Amino acid sequence: MKEEIIYGINPVMEALRGKRRAFELFLAGMGTEKRLEKLLRLAAERRVPVRHREKEDISRLCGTEFHQGVALRVEPFAYAELDEVVAKWKETGERGLFLILDSVQDPHNLGAIIRSAACAGVHGVIIPRDRAVGVTASVEKTSAGAVETVLIARVANLVQAMEALKQEGFWIYGTAADAAASLYEQDFTGNVALVIGGEGEGIRPLVRKRCDFLVSIPIRGGVSSLNASVAGGVMLFEVVRQRLGSG
Questions:
Q1: Each residue of 177-192: pLDDT tens digit?
Q2: CA distances from 7 to 13, 26, 79, 83, 137 (A)
Q3: Residues 13-38: what's their mean pLDDT?
Q4: Domains of the chain
Q5: Helix (H, G, I), strand (E, B) or coil at 98
Q6: CA-CA distances (angstroms) from residue 90 to 71, 95, 155, 162, 168?
Q7: Confidence class of residue 19 from pLDDT cuts 50, 70 and 90?
Q8: What is the pTM (predicted TM-score) of this model?
Q9: Is residue 115 a contact partner of residue 142, using CB atoms and an 8 Å limit?
Q10: Contact, 77 vs 194, CB < 8 A?
């Protein structure tokens, strides 16, 4: 059976609260921090063995020193099918909000965007199988465990996924620095899917062509563009702001 190592207090805690099968919890030292006490309680509830190891041993296990003395051996991350994500959204009866990521390759960007998506209440995140990073231990650490709380679909064809959402009544908004329209001029109160491009190149031409609208984030100062994760957060919370205002 394939296995993964998750590290960091928040990612491990969310994994223990989630559905993935957990095999072993590794801790460096006993510790008295309340969060560690919660980890031990969750591990006991799920009957996960706890192994106490030196910090250096956990660093070798994780391949990094940034593990906070906590690691968890679990089964691999399970992506959702797009149909499943859409069905779960329909069950909520809420206005839909999906996030589509086109060729995001930096694990830290992906983790940060997923964390923002979770905070914004998205119903699903869609990423491509090719030319993009998937959910890794680094992504989970950066997301602070948010990957365990948001449905993430990994699809072979982003354009087909966009068309499927359109059939469900979604408007697709792509971010582009050269777009004439500002995101602050848009109406995001309906069913919305936001497309965020990858580092450097942005949204690929074919994906861009299939967007219903292209919008830009107004930039002031000497830097011409935002980091992908920051752009995603700005877009998501403009949607949240508008929906809070519209009731």
A1: 889 999 999 999 999 9
A2: 10, 9, 19, 30, 7
A3: 84
A4: 4-74 (3.30.1330.30), 82-246 (3.40.1280.10)
A5: strand
A6: 36, 9, 20, 17, 10
A7: confident
A8: 0.89
A9: yes
A10: no
